[in-house]
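Open question from group meeting: does this chain pack into something compact, or does most of it stay loose? Before anyone orders reagents, we agreed to write out a predicted structure and look at it together. Recording both the input and the output here so the notebook holds the full record.
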Amino acid sequence: SGQSREYYIPLGSGSTTKSDFEDITSSDTIIDPVNYPNIKEAYFIASLKNPTQNGAVEAQLFNVTDKHLVWGSHVVMNGPAVQTVTSNKITLDKGAKLYRVQLKSTLGFNASLDNAKIRIITE
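Structure tokens returned:
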């Protein structure tokens, strides 16, 4: 029809106190781009919480099936206690792949991820 559409794929929530990336297995989601014809853009969106405001909170999307980081998905929240951050454009690999969010707190304080999602825009 020539009109763009938006899709949101929920990835879930989780938390960590680790200063290295921790797998948030509750975010595991299988995505096959064939279900979203003519993808124009895709983004990783993470609502992050850093209650103590010590250090930064980082999140990224990982392709578990092919064992690699989703390029462009790394996001950082530095300062506020709560913030929703959106990645640069990401590319979803062809075929049904298992994706997982990875989370870290740079100084090892409690950090959490709420309502992570992938936003897909089709044309």
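Observations to bring back to the group:
The mean pLDDT is 95.
The radius of gyration is 14 Å.
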